[in-house]
Amino acid sequence: MMWGLSSPTPVQLAAFLFVSCSITSPSSGFAPPTSQLLLRPISSTTLSTPTKLNNIYDDWSTDLLSTASSPYTYDDLILPFCDDEAVVECLEELMDSDYGQTMFGRNDMAANVGITGTIELISLEGPEATLSLIGKFWHRRETVLGKAAMYLNARMPELTSITVASAEDLNDFEEVTDEFTGEVLYVDDKRSPDFNGDRETMEYQGLDPDARGPFPPSVFGSGVKIIPT
Length: 229
Hints:
By secondary structure, the chain is α+β, with helices and mostly antiparallel strands.
């Protein structure tokens, strides 16, 4: 599945090629115990700790990891283990990043325009992670999953499948039907409000609203980078 991304960087493209985001029901079985987790030797590179204007997700998204502009390196990107805690940590990094401010309702900027969406880990079974998208997003839900999937695979290459529990989880609209007749009563828009009309305008112009996001660049001022979708 392509997630409506535009002009991916080489790093993002490589991550996309490795990850499989098939939409399936959770496989039967159980998560491996800690002693059986997929392990990798810890990098000898010490994580640098200068003041960070962006977290590692922002630097990875803008392909800054190999430059002097980033306090991180590519060695810092790969986590030494793949377990529930690591997946949750990476999802937190995505949601707390500068880019995440425009996508997730935990951030004031997004919450103030009606965005309530969040993303959570449901289960991790070997190399297969199942996520849940909760609430209303301004972006398409498949774009949200795509962002999370590429980043998780970049940090934990062991992950080969990143899915949602149900295909309906990715639908931006939901038909509400009569329980007796099956007649469609109305269609529920699961997206957050188009608060300034920009989403509809960009769609009318044949543009991908997710490529810019809900806020024009001027909202961020000169000190914050806009990370393209």
